[in-house]
Structures are given as structure tokens and as C-alpha cells.
Amino acid sequence: MNVIEQAQQGYAPTQFAIRTTRSVEAQLITQITSRLQKLRYASRQDFPKLMAALHDNRRMWTTMAIDVADKGNALPKELRAQIFYLAEFTDQHTQQVIRKKADIAALIDINMAVLRGLNGQERP
Questions:
Q1: Quick check: 14 pLDDT over 60?
Q2: Cα dihedral across residues 61, 67, 71, 77: positive or negative
Q3: Quick check: 107 and 55 in contact, CB under 8 A?
Q4: Tens-digit pLDDT profile for residues 18-69
Q5: Closest CA to 85 of 54, 42, 114
Q6: Using an 8 Å Cβ cutoff, are 102 and 96 in contact?
Q7: How many CA atoms lie within 13 A of 45 on its CB side?
Q8: pLDDT for the residue 97
């Protein structure tokens, strides 16, 4: 590469992908939900992976609950309350799943519903 090519490359416009908070949230929920779906019928040997996925899902929902509880959150009050309720439900239901008293289907369904909302889709 000669000096001119180096200069052109050095001063060429750089393109960065612009990510919105909404797209980052959707990506995180998608990743966690995908893990839960794969582990829905996990065998005993996959139990640690299931626990890790459940932990990550619970942590994500706890973070969302903290965010919507903040008075500075710009979401409508009713939506904030609904998200907070879903976080509480997710925490309680996860405890039931860990005790093998419930299935993870409800957790998957909740995440999928939130994804539809983030992506501006109606219910199927």
C-alpha cells in the first residue's frame, strides 16, 4: 500500500452502526429467550445451563424493574407498572421453575410478548 492509499484509508469516513436502546433491549431479550427455548426440555446434564439462563433472565427483568421504578423513566406510568409487575411475576415464577413446580413456558411467553411490543408487532 502506498502513501496515498494509506492517507485515503486513514481519512475515509468510518461507519458505525447506530443502535437504539430499544434494539439493544430486543437483542438481549432475544438471546435470553432463545437460550430458554433451547433448554425448555433440558436433560439433567443441561441443568446448570438452564440455571444460568434462568439467572440471566431474572437479572434482566430485575434491571428492567429498577429502570421503570426510577422517577426519571420516560415511559408512560401504566406501562412502567406493567413492566414492574412482569418483573415480579418472572421472579416468583422462576423460583417455581427451579423447584420443578412450574414450566418455563410462561417466562418464554412473557419475553416473546415484550419482543413483539419492542418490535411494534401485534399479537399473532
A1: no
A2: negative
A3: no
A4: 667 777 899 999 999 999 999 988 788 888 999 999 999 999 999 999 999 9
A5: 114
A6: yes
A7: 0
A8: 94
**Neighbour tally for 104: CB within 10 Å:** 21
Give this prediction's pTM: 0.79
Separation of alpha carbons 14 and 24, rounded Å: 21
80, 89 in Cβ contact below 8 A?
A: no
Which long-range CB contacts under 8 A does 103-112 form with residues at least 24 apart?
103/40, 104/36, 104/39, 104/40, 104/50, 104/54, 105/40, 107/36, 107/54, 107/57, 108/33, 108/36, 108/37, 108/40, 110/86, 111/29, 111/32, 111/33, 111/36, 111/57, 112/33
Q: Report the alpha-carbon distance of residue 94 to residue 89 in Å, rounded.
A: 8
Task: Give per-residue pLDDT as tens, 83-95.
Answer: 999 999 999 999 9
First to last CA, the chain: 54
